Every structure is written in C-alpha cells, then in structure tokens.
Amino acid sequence: MSANENHTPNALPAGYRFNEFEIKEVIGGGGFGIVYRAWDHQLERTIAIKEYMPVSLAVRADDLSLELRGERFQKLFNAGRSSFIQEARLLARFNHPGLLHVLRFWEENDTAYMGTLYYSGMTLKEWQVTSPDSIDEAWIRRLLPPLFGAINTIHAAGYLHRDISLDNIQIQENQLPVLLDFGSARKEIGNLSDETEIMLKPGFAPIEQYSEEGEIEQGPWTDIYALGAVLHNLIAGHAPPVSVVRCIEDNYQPLVERQPEGYSLPLLHAIDCALAMKPADRPQSIDAFASLIDLPVSDVEALVTTFPVAAEAPAAEPVAIVVPEPQVMAVNHAAAAIEPVTPRNVRRLSPGLVAAAAIAILAVVVVVWKTNRHSETAPIAAAPSASAPVASNNAAGSAPSLATVYLRLQEGEKVLLNGEAKDVKPASSGFASLNLAAGNYRIEVHNGSQVLSQSLTIDKPGTWLINPGKP
Ligand SMILES: Nc1ncnc2c1ncn2[C@@H]1O[C@H](COP(=O)(O)OP(=O)(O)O)[C@@H](O)[C@H]1O
Ligand SMILES: [Mg+2]
C-alpha cells in the first residue's frame, strides 16, 4: 500500500529505500513526526523508522525532501530537529528493553531519521480502547515493575522523561511495556513558540512543568505525577483534572474516596500520592513509589521483550524440533509473584537455540541490570559473546533437566541447592547456570558475610533468571 493510499499526508511512499531499509507502511505519528514500518534487507527483519516531520512548519516536496512552509519557520524547524537528534542520542545511551532501542540515526531529505527496533502491539491508549476488560489491578501490577525499571533507568542517568502518557507507552503482544518517545521535538517547538498546549499533555503534566524554568524544581516526582495520571486514567477512565486548574481550585477527588471496585487501597493511595499538587508531597523516587504499592522496580522481567524483535519470520527458519512449549521466566527476588511470559516465536526454536538466545539476551540485560547486591551501580560489563556459561550442572541427578536457571554470581561465592553445595562458577557474563529437573528448590548464595536465597518451583520447561535476596 502506498502512503497516499494510506491517507497520511507528507508520508514517504511504500517501497522508498534508505540503502538497506525499505519503507513498508505508515504505522503512526502525529504533528511532529511519522513512524514507518520498514524492512531491513540486510538483516532481514522488520524495523521502525521515525522521521522528523513537523507538519505546521514543513511539507514534503515532489523530490520527497522537506520544504519549509515559510522562511520564518527555519529557526523553529532547526530547533525541533536538534531536539529530535538529542532524543535519539539519549535513547541510544540506554540499553534497556523497556526503552525504545535506537539502531541508527541519519539525516536525509532535509530532515532526520531514527531507525529503531520494531515493537509488536499497540499503545496503552489504544489498549485501553480495545481491551478495556483486561485492565484490572492484577494487570496493572504486572505492567508496573518493568515500567518502573525503564523510568528508573532514565532517572539514574540524570534525565527526566517529562512526557509519560498513555500514547507513549507501547504494550507489546507479550504485554511488556516500552516507553516510545520523549516528545522532545514537540516540546521544543511548543516551548519556543510559547504554545503550552503543544508542549504539555493536559492532565498528565504536573504544575512545575507549567511554571517558569527554575521556579519549581523538576525531578523524578515530575515523571511520577505523569505516571500517576496514566494509572488514574486506566482505573477511572479519564485523566485527573489539569494541574493548572487544580492550582486555582483543586477539585481532584482522591481515588481512596471514590474506591473504584476491584482496586486495593494501597494502589489507590499510591496513585493519589503521585498526583499530589505539591512536588514534596509526592513519592520522590520511583523506588519510593514502587514501595508504596509493594512492587519491585524491575528491569529483569523486561528481558523477554527481546523476543518480539523476531516477529517477522527470518529467511532461514531454525530447524523445527517439537518440544513442549518453553517459557522464559523472569524472576525478581522482591516480586511477590513470578510471571511467565510465552514469546510467540519460541516454539520454533530447539532447546539449544533457546538457551543460546537466553544467553544472548542476558548479555544485553547485564549491561543495565543493577542488582541490589551491587549498589555502587556501575554498569556491569556485557558479556563479549554469547558463549555458554562456564559451569552447567545437572542438579537433579538422573532425572531429566527441565529448566535452565541463571543466577548472578561473583568469583568466590558459593551456591547451595537444597542445602547441598554445588560446584558452579560464573561465566564471563557474570552468570552461572544450573540445569534443574522438575521440583521445588531453595537456592542459596553464600558470599562470606551474607547469605542470599531464593525459592523456586520448576514445573515447566523454560529459562529462568533469578536474583536471590536476603532471606
Ligand atoms: N518502534 C516502534 N515499533 C512499533 N510501533 C511504533 C514504534 N514507534 C512508534 N510506534 C507507533 O507509532 C505511533 C506513534 O508513536 P510515537 O513514537 O509516540 O510518535 P508520536 O508521539 O510522534 O506520535 C504509535 O501508535 C506507536 O504504536
Ligand atoms: Mg508519542
């Protein structure tokens, strides 16, 4: 289908090539950019391409380059493009499965482009419209830990998102969320043209985003307000009143008073706190917000998001071996529940490939995964290659192993499985692995001064990543 048939004005036509990338169709975009689904002919996979295209300032000419609507827009156009470039650079610094992964950046057609991973699913805004019945407290509690992890990663690097909203969170088919964009170009153009309504999303932006620069300090609490507004929207069906209006007369009715059916008071109370008008009254960090709801801040769960990248079948399919449907499990020691996620394409992979994929994923995740045991939080170096961990152990004696469990381990740390010492050592990835048969296990890590432990029930084939904590 061509872009014109697609009725997206100013879009590049289907079939348009940027070297190995071929535009397939328009998948989204608003007034400041167009998002395309594209095919990477070299790596034979689907990617997404974001094009900087502020419709109020520019149009597409016949030669497909962008032309200003008037010379007077040059400054605004350039400022927006600079912000778009800054956003690409910022996103490229992170390697977090819950943050849009930028593959490439380039300038062409008198504008700028970002090649990114393609994520299945739809925005949370679309999800709310198409699957309203799925949204309940359990669903929200599953959504939050990886989302907390993504936002926390931005904060830990010293940045704020400032544009968290329903339409910037993609819910992938495996239900794991990805923060799609920071809206930098839109915010910059809105700011320079003094148009607050362009710059900020009413109902989501807290009061400090409306105030003059420096008047009220922005910080993690600024994103926490927006996240509170997202959750308010999911539960109440609408955003809270616009913060500038609340400033004059606060007609916000706390959720704990409204008590919508099916939601617990701790969750409702946490959202009310996040939506406090005064920044100081809100949770000051994602950790503080998460602990109000008794949820972990996780970037571990998010490792399975790597799977949807292979949504489109590669040219050479792996040999089909029928195995029981494996599951990739992500477990955080602080999580009350263990969430299994079944990636769509895993069934096509042999157990060996699943293990190799898991190790490759770990190599990515290790970069961003800060365990509670290493609070100095220097990023842990990624494994240089997807080599197998040094020590693999069939702990179950003669019983066939069903699952591979990976755990972070340092040299010198000792592992006990159900009280029995195991000879496992960390691989270069910083993880050790255990092959376990079905059963109940208690895994302890002794590091001299302390003992960390985790209980585990293996009842399905799969790959597990565990993070033992203090008992
Ligand atoms: N990498 C991606 N993979 C799949 N869909 C995407 C991707 N990036 C954006 N989209 C889709 O494009 C639309 C707009 O995305 P977004 O990045 O928020 O742009 P904007 O805020 O400029 O409209 C959304 O519907 C989203 O689902
Ligand atoms: Mg957006």
UniProtKB/TrEMBL annotation:
Keywords, ordered alphabetically: ATP-binding, Kinase, Membrane, Nucleotide-binding, Serine/threonine-protein kinase, Transferase, Transmembrane, Transmembrane helix
GO molecular function, one term: ATP binding
Amino-acid positions noted as binding ATP in the UniProt annotation, renumbered to this chain: K50
A Pfam family this chain is assigned to: Pkinase
Domain annotation Protein kinase: ranges: 21-298
Parts forming coiled coils: none
Domain of life assignment: Bacteria
SUPFAM superfamilies the UniProt entry points to: Protein kinase-like (PK-like)
PROSITE patterns tied to this protein: PROTEIN_KINASE_ATP (PS00107), PROTEIN_KINASE_DOM (PS50011)
Transmembrane segments annotated in the record for this chain: 349-369
Name used for this protein in its record: Serine/threonine protein kinase
UniProt source species: Pantoea rodasii
Organismal lineage: Bacteria, Pseudomonadati, Pseudomonadota, Gammaproteobacteria, Enterobacterales
